[in-house]
Specification:
Layout: E1 3-8, H1 14-25, E2 29-31, H2 32-40, H3 44-67, E3 74-76, H4 85-93, E4 95-101, H5 104-111, H6 125-140, E5 145-148, H7 154-169
Helix pairs in contact: 1-7, 2-3, 3-4, 5-6
Bound molecules: shikimate-3-phosphate.
C-alpha cells in the first residue's frame, strides 16, 4: 500500500482523520509535528518562539525526509508543509497526497483559542486565517486528491479517503 499523506490548513482535521485511518486500516500513523516535538524535546510553540518560523521549516523538511522513507503508513503533516515543493516531492514518492479543506469559519471554530498554534496567535485570528488561506491556496491545490471536510465527521472523511485511495491505486478514475 502507498502511504496516505494528509495535508491541509490548520483545523481541517488532519490529526483526527489520521487517527481514524490508522484504526480502520490498522496502519501506523506518523504525525510530523509530534515527531518534531519528540526529536527536538520541545513543543512547536516553543520552537517558533525560540528559533522562529524559518528554523521550524528546516526542521520540518528534515523530518519529512525521514518519514517519507516509510511505506504503507499514514502521514499527517503540519498545515505549512505544502509550502516547500521539496516536501511535496518527498511525500509523493511513496504516497498519495490528500488535502483536507474547510471554510475559514469552520477553521476558526475548530482551532478554538489557538494557543498551541503560533501562526494564529494574532489579534484577529479570523483575518489571519483568511490571509494565510489566500496565500496558500495554490499550494494546497497541488495535492493529488482534495477532500472537502465541511459537515463531515472524521470517520466519514476517513472512509472517503480510503475509497479514493483504492480507486487511485487501482488505476480507475
Ligand atoms: C502550521 C501548522 C501547524 C504546525 C505549525 C505551523 C502552519 O500544524 O505545523 O504551527 O504553518 O500551518 P497543524 O496544521 O497540525 O495545526
Amino acid at each position: 500500500m502507498k502511504n496516505i499523506v494528509l495535508t491541509g490548513f490548520m483545523g481541517t482535521g488532519k490529526t483526527a482523520v489520521g487517527k481514524e485511518l490508522s484504526r480502520l486500516l490498522r496502519e501506523r500513523l506518523i504525525d510530523v509535528d509530534s515527531e518534531i516535538e519528540k526529536s527536538e524535546g520541545m513543543s512547536i510553540n516553543e520552537i517558533f518562539e525560540r528559533f522562529g518560523e524559518q528554523r521550524f521549516r528546516e526542521i520540518e523538511t528534515a523530518m519529512i525526509r525521514n518519514v517519507s522513507e516509510n511505506k504503507g503508513v499514514i502521514i499527517s503533516t503540519g498545515g505549512g508543509a505544502v509550502l516547500r515543493q521539496e516536501n511535496m516531492d518527498m511525500l509523493r514518492r511513496n504516497g498519495i497526497v490528500f488535502c483536507l479543506t474547510a471554510s475559514p469559519e469552520t477553521i476558526l471554530l475548530r482551532t478554538g483559542d489557538s494557543s498551541d498554534r503560533p501562526l494564529l496567535k494574532a489579534e484577529d485570528p479570523f483575518k489571519k486565517i483568511n490571509e494565510l488561506l489566500r496565500f496558500r491556496q495554490p499550494y494546497y491545490e497541488k495535492a493529488d486528491i482534495i477532500i472537502d471536510t465541511e459537515d463531515k465527521d472524521p470517520l466519514q472523511i476517513a472512509e472517503e479517503i480510503m475509497e479514493k485511495a483504492t480507486r487511485a491505486t487501482s488505476g480507475k478514475d
